[in-house]
Automatic annotation (TrEMBL):
GO terms for biological process: D-amino acid catabolic process. It holds the Pfam family Tyr_Deacylase. The keyword Hydrolase applies. This is D-aminoacyl-tRNA deacylase. A Gly-cisPro motif from one monomer fits into the active site of the other monomer to allow specific chiral rejection of L-amino acids. Its EC number is 3.1.1.96, 3.1.1.-. The keyword Transcription does not apply. GO terms for molecular function: D-tyrosyl-tRNA(Tyr) deacylase activity; Gly-tRNA(Ala) deacylase activity; Ser(Gly)-tRNA(Ala) hydrolase activity; tRNA binding. It is an enzyme of class 3 (hydrolase).
């Protein structure tokens, strides 16, 4: 499972011109799921996310987590995070899990994250053509792959 985490001042998801979710200060998470992912990957990434110290303290040092700041989280499914660009110019998405595997894992990820955050997380709509807007704060953008823990 892969996450692209962006610290944001605000973020929103629109589908067909309609805003379906939005947050203020917090994190936008783009989540890519592959067939080898499981509950262990979800637990690892959710714990890492809510405890990641990427928010400024009183001295302007990134020393606070989203839990400490009370920030929001917006989660968007992003199968293209598993794109392979080794051959040719057209990315291959063979590593990305099919919907029968990825939808339950995505839903479990959102549920687990919400439990750890102690409040609901905002989400996109799985499989939809979404327009995601954000104001990246910093910019701070972090990539985490649950298969690379060492």
């Amino acid at each position: 499972m892969r996450l692209l985490i962006q610290r944001v001042r605000e973020a929103a998801v629109h589908i067909d011109g309609q805003k379906i979710s939005s947050i203020g200060e917090g994190m936008l998470l783009l989540v890519g799921i592959e067939e080898a992912d499981n509950e262990e990957d979800i637990g690892f990434l959710c714990k890492k996310t809510v405890n990641l110290r990427i928010f400024d303290d009183g001295k302007g040092v990134m020393n606070r987590s989203v839990l400490e700041t009370g920030g929001d989280i917006l989660v968007v499914s992003q199968f293209t995070l598993h794109a392979s660009t080794k051959k040719g110019n057209r990315p291959s998405y063979l590593r990305a899990a099919k919907p029968d595997i990825s939808i339950p894992l995505y839903e479990q990820f959102c549920s687990t994250l919400s439990e750890m955050l102690l409040k609901p997380v905002a989400t996109g709509k799985f499989g939809a053509d979404m327009q995601v807007s954000l104001v990246n704060d910093g910019p701070v953008t972090i990539w985490i792959d649950s298969k690379n823990r060492e």
